[in-house]
Amino acid sequence: MTLMVDEQIKKRGYEPITQLFVPNSDLVETASYLANLDINKRMNRIYQMDIEDAIFDTRAFFKAFYRIHNVPYLIRKKFNRYSLRMVNPFDLPIYYENHPDEICYGALITDFTDRWGITFGGIVLNKIVTEFTSCTYAHEITHSLLDSTRGAIREYYNEEVISLVNELILASILESDERILRAEDSRRIFEIDTLCKELQDYHRGAMDKTRDDGLIDSKYLISDVRAYNLFAEYYYGSIAVQRHIVDKINKVMNGEGNVEELLGEFMDIPATNNEGVKLIFSPKTTKYFKRG
Ligand SMILES: [Zn+2]
Questions:
Q1: Residue 193: its pLDDT value, please?
Q2: What is the pLDDT averaged over residues 188-204?
Q3: Eight-state DSSP code of residue 251
């Protein structure tokens, strides 16, 4: 059964949300401007590849950058019986689904159990395997590490930040000419622009959307912008800064500190359940999306 977002927030121990997010005009205008630059409208060619190679790249990335801990795997047996085993997240079963229109489709199958709390049933990836797949897989592995670490994320709206940053770091090292990274950027800036417009419409009451839709859209928009603000620090940072960011992500994923503290080092992050969240691209992020 799929839980309503407010119930999920409670089960995950996040702070409750009273206000839906309304993007400010500064963000809306910048997103629209950046999404319409030629450099971001150009679609790089992305090739298909073998799943074994994609998985190899994700494993190599985590091996080189991060510690990983075991995560709760819920095994379904016959007659509605379950058992739980702690496994390496790379040992969670992978299921392939056909999503021809969503090349980066990925999901972490999550169950909220009374007995064991949050558990995972596996990871879903697109049947069409491309050069993006290793990044999507890294994104879902990151979710499993964060979601099994209570307190790693305090606010629902920041749920996607670290998964997105890991996706971007991996994309940035896969190809020296940034072909895959730029394809990621085009996709995301388009997503940010669209979410800005939809949330504005939602706020005006012009759209037939539920509170859940508004919460999910708010989460992706806030997480996308904050992830890029953090990634731009990494991208333009010295080796020392890059190491520092990776070290902090490592700690958050393994139960020391939380995402909000890490973000707070680099940007203003007022609590999102208050009115008037200031969400803008940092000057470095704007520069990043304009790079030639
Ligand atoms: Zn995600």
A1: 97
A2: 93
A3: H
Tokens 């119930």 correspond to 7
78 alpha carbon – ligand 1 mean position (Å): 30
The rounded Å distance from CA 220 to ligand 1 centre is: 9
pLDDT, tens digit (0-9, with 9 covering 90-100), for 110-163: 999 999 999 999 999 999 999 999 999 999 999 999 999 999 999 999 999 999
Amino acid letter, residue 94: I
Q: How far is CA 248 from the centre of its chain?
A: 16
Q: In the 3-class helix/strand/coil scheme, how is 123-192 assigned residue by residue?
A: EEEECCCECCHHHHHHHHHHHHHHHCCCCCCCCHHHCCHHHHHHHHHHHHHHCCCCHHHHHHHHHHHHHH
192: confidence class by pLDDT, cuts 50, 70, 90:
very high
Number of domains in the chain: 1
For residue 11, the enclosing domain spans 5-290
How many angstroms does the Cα of residue 163 sit away from the middle of ligand 1? Answer: 6
